[in-house]
Amino acid sequence: MKIRSIKMREAHKSSNGVGSFCSVLWDQQGEHIVTASSSDSSICIQDAFLPANPPKIVRHHRDGVTALALSPNFTCLASGSVDHSVKLYKFPGGEFETNITRFTLPIRTLAFNRSGTMLAAAGDDEGIKLINTIDGSIARVLKGHRGSITGIAFDPKSEYLASVDSIGTVMIWELQSGNTIHVLKGIAPVIGSDFSSMNIVGWSPDGELLAVPGLKNDVVMYDRDTAEKLFSLRGDHVQPICFLSWSPNGKYMATSGLDRQVLIWDVDKKQDIDRQKFDNRVTCMAWKPIGNALAVIDIMGKYGIWESAVPSSMRSPTENVPVLGSKNGHGLLFFDEEEENPSASGSLSDLGEDSHGESEPFSRKRLRKQHSFDDGWEEDAKEEFELLPKAEPRKKAPHGHTDSSDNKRNELKNVPISAGQKMQEAFQPGTTPQLPGKRRFLCYSMLGSITAMEHDGYSHIEIDFHDTSSGPRVPAMTDYFGFTMASLNENGSVFANPCKGEKNMSTLMYRPFSSWANNSEWSMRFEEEEVRAVALGTGWVAAVTSCNFLRIFTEGGLQRHILSLDGPVVTAVGYKDELAVVTHASPPLPSNEQILEFRVFNIRNGIQPRRGRLPLTPGSCLSWFGFSEEGHLSSFDSKGVLRVFTNQYGGSWLPLFSASKLKKPEENYWVVGLNTSKLFCVICKSPDYFPEATPKPILTLLDLSFPLASSDLGAENLENEFIMNNMHLHRIQSTIEEMEAAGEDTSLLDDEAFNTDAALDRCILRLIASCCNGDKLVRATELVKLLALEKSVKGAIKLVTALKLPNLAERFNAILEERLNKETTGSTIPASTELKCDTSFNAQAALTKSHFTAESSKRLELESSPSQNLLAPSLTKKRSLEEPTKDVNMDTENARARKLEMAREFKNAFDLKNSKKLKDEKDKADEVKDARKLENANKLEDGEDKNGEANKVTTQRPSNPFAKSSNNKQSASFLDSLKKKVKTDR
Hints:
By secondary structure, the chain is α+β, with helices and mostly antiparallel strands. It contains twelve helices and 51 strands. The longest helix has 43 residues, at 885-927.
């Protein structure tokens, strides 16, 4: 049999070095793993999907936690401790609810009944307390054991309670009356005072069998009603069994022994089907409610997940879960319409309410357990064929023979309600979880890292830059606050910690790397709220809290803005002036898909330029969020898909990387950052999702690529290069437009845009060649229309001519001629528009038109020269044929300059003519001023009228002479003829 290793992660540190009893639990959807240790006062709520996220630590006990229990609807967590108390918390948040009861001695075991209305607690005291969870009252105390009670279990039908003590006595209690109906002495091992392993009992999910560890290193099965020994599971355990766990469907069982082995049993066949050897004794196990996995934890506080605990060739452990009465097959309370709310009176009638359901599939008294090999095998084979089309394990038909209407009713009742779906908790990008005795990352980015090492109640924090030559040298510091998250940029770092208990408030601290003033470090405290995410930018610090407040501070600590967000925060990141925040837009869908929304704030301008939904792969959650080196917003989900935001199509997310395309399921990618063409990440071997801080992880560069469909040309690489170049060109053009609007110089970006255009043309030419070889001529025609440079079009024509495709070459020629005609038309339209200006500039407008015509002719002549290299677009003019507006604008500016110059010359000539005319008139007036004053005055008046008419003729003369003239020589001749006409009129 093949032995597989299980990666164990340290959740609790053993204080005595010997080991202690540790507990582990799954939640309903398999999203959280809860761990505890009798040598640690804290409870850890781990994220099963994202182990890289730091666990939620619950610290309310004063001593080690010896027992855990989750309510059937998975909304309440109960814990028992050596400090004699039993506490209740909200789940999965971990908020403290109440101290529900106290004992005089340590607690050893806890269990909820099937409806969640009763909690049984027991330990070193004599009695078992049955506590009403609604009002906290003690309904009954069951006494009879002589030793410490180490295990209790409610019958799934809520009729019986089974318990076992440290001296090996098993007792079965009737809940309705509180009486003992069976006492089985000396059937379980004696553990004495060693509570690192404890006796345990377990009912099968259908309630027909009671499993008890035996005296022969085996598991003994007892009948539900008669307490008769039916059979035992005996295999390769060489020491007593210390823990057992039924699979959700009751077909399998996991057992752990003092020999450090874990065995998986097929109960019907009474044989083990798989096993695993561990370095330390496993004290607790829990089956995953969905899927095929087993969580284990050993005496040293290390937990792990045994994936595919049941061989894949066999039926899943969560398939065909029994359905009892009107309840769900998992034994969970979903508050269906047929169920009545539990009474708040705490009466004992509630303890047996489930036994009086309207349909009971099994009789109360059985003759024999029908678990024979033949019958079970036939039933299993039949059920496998019947259940093959079904997709959800929770929708399987129950055991027994029922009609189709009963199956449909049970399927409808087993659909999970939306309220049970889990919203992703807040996380800080680049943070790894806290493990006792190990260094962790508070922040890891493209710039550097912040690490923390816990020691004697405080942490030692170090800040390192990847490029030591550019980053400042930052001294280490001692953390007395217990920071769990941080962010880093070139100017400083920010730290934050969540609330720790009722007195310790959440703290935000900013630490600049250099400052002209002393005591430039500052901190803030928050009452009745805690920091969930932090971010840094140019001149600002941001923190998002549990009250959905976005708090923005200056680098000096001034509280600048406080904004209310629409939902609980998921994460936040900063880049220069921009702050991006991700929040929940609504509760998750029934398919457990997160509904997230992102918002981008510009802190300097006080605006919100972008906002929208954040896409995720179905069934995934957000695992990384940040900006690329160029400032593009990016996200990475738990399914391994990287997306980058673009302004195209009104704002969309482009998938630029997919881990599934690499076809390496044994690798997990912990993202650090990205640039234009590469993804920077740390590759972690499964099941690890995050790297260790020591030694420093090695960054791996992966190529960005779109998840394209398999092309019929076999040219996926070329198609990916084509889309990537288009995307880069669009970004550059958008940046150029923004810079031109701001009046900034864009010469460098113009060069980059031209180089990208040339690279895009080269890629298109290779794609055209592939299309021609693959006989995809329509696609080749579509591609040639996308070429930006005229030489590239001519190169495509030469290419298809060499490939002996004359029809395609003819089409390409037609496309080229059409584009040249459009360019010529586009070049002349601005000139004709300029002719519609004031008539005083008509002469210059004519020159402008001729200038355009000459320039266009010259350009067309140069571009059509056959001596130029068609496949060297880098030597062509830096302008696209599709966009001639840049040259037209330059020609328009030249035309305006020439127009102003000619207007000045025309004005000077006209002024000279007027001054000469006035001088002649003055001379004539002097000669006749004595005798013929009146007559000369009249003549002068007539001469002025004629001059006025001449001027009128000049101003009213149509612009045709100017429009017809094509150079300065024609304009000068026209002026001379005008002067002669004025003299003749005089």
